[in-house]
From TrEMBL:
Keywords linked to the UniProt accession: 2Fe-2S, 4Fe-4S, FAD, Flavoprotein, Heme, Iron, Iron-sulfur, Metal-binding, Nitrate assimilation, Oxidoreductase
Endpoints of the signal sequence: none
The protein, known as: Nitrite reductase large subunit NirB
Organism: Gracilibacillus salinarum
Keyword Ion transport included in the entry's annotation: no
Domain FAD/NAD(P)-binding: 5-282
Residues covered by the Nitrite/Sulfite reductase ferredoxin-like domain: 551-612
Needed cofactors: FAD; [4Fe-4S] cluster; [2Fe-2S] cluster; siroheme
The family this protein is said to belong to: Belongs to the nitrite and sulfite reductase 4Fe-4S domain family.
InterPro entries named among the record's database cross-references: BFD-like_2Fe2S-bd_dom, BFD-like_2Fe2S-bd_dom_sf, FAD/NAD-bd_sf, FAD/NAD-binding_dom, FAD/NAD-linked_Rdtase_dimer_sf, NasD-like, NiRdtase/SiRdtase_haem-b_fer, Nit/Sulf_reduc_fer-like_dom_sf
Length: 799
């Protein structure tokens, strides 16, 4: 029997998944032809966010290599657009003059990004974020320009903004609603998200509507309807998508918002089907892959003549792909008159969970900070579980049962691909799978957004027990397979002196590196060669580049050094004068006993520093921040030692020292510990004739009590042991690893062994002195450099 001719228009994620399903059901029944407008094989569009964020490369996001088409006898026409469908004669025509007949036609033309029809939207530097070309355009712009504006604070806009930050740009996000991701989150979660993203350096303009894109040939900025304006060298529009229906409509296929299909993905025209973002099913158009894959399954079964109930619609779930941010939502997100909610807001852990219940059934969930329960909740909501079932499953995990162990076989592990626990466990057992990659190959789990990888790994552990050895070697980022220790060893061994050289010699997978490895390499090089290494300013995070902390409204905060938290009338008068002169928004005492001037304009920073005439407090740096002190023996009736004097000495000695992460210290003069040394990176407590030195404490998100390192008699010894500890931490911790995590990881006994060894302690002190000898006060440095003033602060002369 002659094979049926099957033609697919659109070589994207939904169309090709439908073909894969068909090939699985009936491998040899069709002559398949695929037309794809883009000149690539089918790739993972989802991962473009990861490409922009520097976590992966374009070459690594291909889903089906050229060879796959060949192996399956598929005729692929890449870079060729279908321009007409003749539904009577069942033929399609392309822009390259090709005519192809079909028995079955699948339209999977996806969506087009919605571009706001603003004056100036056609200028150079305005782009969408939809395909490889857009991604390349943004990466290229980041090499030449500084300021990006992203219009739209939805999933796409925020993922783009994170990518542009990683590429070293300053990023403003302009959002129409009064809170972010209002289609996916409730206000509480959105506000937590905003705070987190602001701390990563993103700047938000909420409730703003853009009225114009300014500039001559290239964009130079945005104007808002309320009269405001901001500068921008790159504008990314991420304000939603429009199903790509023009071809279908012109060819006489019924369309509404999308191409109208029934439960078998049939259009009104015989033998023409639609699947993916271009299709409209029961008045719903979807923009996430999970429903599109479910549609593909239904379509394949129908075309292959299998009995199937068809596609019934999907429960959606979303997860933002921004590193360091965990947000998840599924089903309904906002309360209604008939719903009740279970809400847990843990201010301490900065987590938020809301579960909506209607008539005892779970109907939706929003999670922030801890999204481990997301997959389970999606699964329960999909199957219409009642609240009791959820509470019981939660009890099981509270009792220590792992999340995957407590799941039933039908529950979904991979939301994107609809792969259940049972399917994965069977594949592991029957096919002898031992790695996440193998599970992906066999079941599709983790093949799309990748957020379920940890659950798949947990399932491998759970199923294989001791036989499963997770790959524990962790590379410093996706640009290399080398670990932190391997990179540092290579820097030392090969005498590498610049990040570019490291990337080149150690065969980095990306040319420019990413936001993870660039600052890390700069730190490691400075640590290994304190005297020779020239700081690579462009590799540093924005706050460190500008020597001030960027705030929510785009202004900066200025914190002058106040050694040991001690000040005097003259300094206070100067601070007050500066605050008045530059109309500082708020003067605030910090937790580290200093004064923070908030709301300083970027262009005023150099003048503020000049007028203050004080050293930088380094409140923005991965560096020694403050040394908090108690009043001590001089004034306090409990005081046994000069804690302020000790604190000042410590702060003066270690001022400006580059460290893997910020370092905070506290010195008290009796066990009442008013300077809170128990939760500091270094805490010193004075007792009668003795100083106790504690290390590895943390009072922030990961609360940790500091551990006793040593008891010594003199202030000189405090300085010596602290220097040894800090230098050892500098030389051995990973970049961005706080002392609390480091000490926890290596154990206090190990650190004690090192610093108590006289020889090692003396060597560590010598290397610390070398590192400290190159310190230059950054604010006065900036004031001396015309170029820096102009490049970074847009000041022509400030002297
Ligand atoms: C940056 C980014 C991140 C995303 N992240 C996620 C995520 O984390 N999770 C998630 O679920 N979803 C995510 N999405 C959405 C997801 O990628 C889409 O839902 C999915 O790709 C849609 O698949 P599709 O096949 O319907 O459309 P597409 O993937 O757009 O494929 C359609 C293809 O058809 C081609 N085409 C159109 N017209 C013609 C024609 N006339 N002739 C020939 N070819 C034609 C198009 O060029 C395109 O290549 C993301 C999207 C983007 C852009
Ligand atoms: N992690 C993920 O799941 C993920 C990531 C990226 C993209 N996507 C998908 O890609 C598609 C596109 O994403 P999107 O974020 O563009 O769509 P979206 O519709 O989810 O969000 C668009 C956002 O832009 C805002 N907006 C609309 N008009 C505006 C204006 N004039 N000015 C400022 N803001 C405006 C809206 O309020 C909305 O929050 C969606 O289907 C999305 O689901 C998903
Ligand atoms: S720690 Fe002790 S000495 Fe210092 S201020 Fe508190 S009570 Fe006084
Ligand atoms: S949940 Fe997205 S790939 Fe599994």
């Amino acid at each position: 029997m002659a094979k049926k001719k099957l033609v697919l228009i659109g070589n994207g994620m939904a169309g090709i998944r439908a073909i894969e399903e068909i090939l699985q059901l009936l491998p040899d029944q069709f002559d398949i032809t695929v037309f794809g407008k883009e000149p690539y094989p089918n790739y993972n569009r989802i991962q473009l966010s990861k490409v922009l964020q520097g976590d992966t490369e374009i070459k690594d996001i291909t889903l089906n290599e050229w060879q796959w088409y060949e192996d399956n006898g598929i005729l692929l026409y890449p870079g060729e657009t279908v321009t007409k469908i003749d539904k009577e004669n069942q033929v399609v025509y392309t822009d390259k003059g090709k005519e192809t007949a079909y028995d079955y036609l699948i339209i999977a033309t996806g969506s087009n990004p919605f571009m706001l029809p603003l004056p100036g939207a056609d200028k150079e530097g305005v782009t969408a974020f939809r395909d490889i070309e857009d991604c390349e355009k943004m990466i290229d712009a980041s090499n030449h320009y500084k300021r990006a504006a992203v219009i739209g604070g939805g999933l796409l806009g925020l993922e783009a903004a994170r990518g542009l930050l990683n590429l070293g740009m300053e990023v403003d996000v302009i959002h129409i609603s009064d809170y972010l991701m209002e289609r996916q989150l409730d206000r509480a979660a959105a506000e937590l998200l905003q705070k987190e993203l602001e701390s990563q350096g993103m700047n938000f303009y909420l409730e703003k509507q853009t009225s114009e894109i300014t500039g001559k040939k290239r964009v130079t900025g945005l104007k808002f309807k309320d009269g405001g304006a901001i500068p921008a060298d790159l504008v990314v529009m991420a304000v939603g998508i429009k199903p790509n229906v023009a071809l279908a409509q012109e060819s006489g296929v019924d369309v509404n918002r999308g191409i109208i299909v029934n439960d078998h993905m049939e259009t009104n025209v015989p033998n023409i089907y639609a699947v993916g973002e271009c299709a409209e099913h029961r008045e719903m158009v979807y923009g996430l892959v999970a429903p599109l894959y479910e549609q593909g399954q239904a379509l394949a079964k129908h075309i292959c003549g299998m009995n199937h109930q068809g596609y019934k619609g999907s429960v959606l779930s979303t997860q933002l792909k921004v590193s360091g941010v965990d947000v998840f939502s599924t089903g309904l997100i906002n309360e209604t008159a008939d719903s009740k909610s279970i809400k847990v807001f843990d201010e301490w852990q900065n987590t938020y969970k809301k579960i909506l219940v209607q008539d005892d059934k779970l109907t939706g969930a929003v999670l922030f900070g801890d999204t481990k329960e997301g997959t389970k909740l999606l699964s329960l909501i999909k199957k219409g579980a009642n609240v009791q079932e959820y509470l019981e499953s939660q009890q099981a995990s509270d009792d220590g049962e792992s999340i995957v162990a407590a799941m039933s076989d039908e529950e979904i592990i991979c939301g994107c691909n609809g792969v259940s626990k049972g399917t994965i466990v069977n594949a592991i057992k029957n096919d002898g799978l031992t790695t996440v990659e193998q599970v992906k190959g066999k079941t599709n789990a983790s093949r799309s957004c990748g957020t379920c990888k940890n659950l798949v790994s947990d399932l491998l552990t759970d199923t294989l027990g001791d036989e499963y050895e997770a790959d524990t070697k962790e590379s410093i980022c996706a640009c290399t397979d080398l670990t932190r220790d391997e990179v540092v060893a290579e820097i030392r061994e090969k005498g590498l002196t610049h990040s570019k050289e490291v990337m080149n010699v150690l065969e980095w997978k990306t040319e420019e590196g990413c936001s993870k490895c660039k600052p890390a390499l700069n730190y490691y090089l400075g640590m290994v060669y304190p005297e020779e290494h020239e700081d690579e300013r462009e590799s540093r995070f924005v706050n460190e580049r500008l020597h001030a902390n960027i705030q929510k409204d785009g202004t900066y905060s200025v914190v002058p050094r106040m050694y040991g938290g001690v000040t005097n009338a003259e300094d206070l008068r100067t601070i007050a004068d500066v605050a008045e002169k530059y109309e500082v928004g708020m003067i605030k005492l910090t937790g580290g006993q200093r004064i923070d001037l908030l709301g300083v304009k970027k262009e005023d920073l150099p003048d503020v520093w000049k007028d203050l005439g004080m050293p930088s407090g380094y409140a923005y740096g991965k560096s020694v921040r403050t040394v908090k002190t108690c009043v001590g023996a001089e004034f306090c009736r409990f005081g046994t030692q000069d804690s302020t004097g000790m604190g000042i000495q410590l702060e003066k000695k270690f001022e400006g020292l580059n460290t893997p992460h910020k370092v905070k210290m506290g010195v008290s003069a009796c066990p009442r510990n008013c300077a809170e040394g128990g939760i500091k990176d270094v805490g010193v407590v004075g007792l009668d004739g003795v100083w106790e030195v504690y290390v590895g404490g943390n009072g922030g998100t990961d609360l940790r009590k500091a551990e006793l390192l040593v008891k010594v008699k003199t202030q000189q010894e405090v300085l010596e042991y602290t220097a040894a500890f800090l230098q050892y931490y500098r030389e051995n911790a990973s970049y961005l690893e706080r002392t609390s995590h480091y000490v926890e990881r290596v154990g206090i006994e190990h650190v004690q062994e090192i610093v108590n060894d006289d020889q090692l302690r003396s060597e560590l002190n010598a290397r610390m002195d070398q590192a400290l000898s190159v310190y230059q006060e950054p604010w006065s440095n900036v004031l001396e450099s015309e170029t820096t003033l102009k490049d970074l602060y847009q000041k022509v002369t400030a002297k």
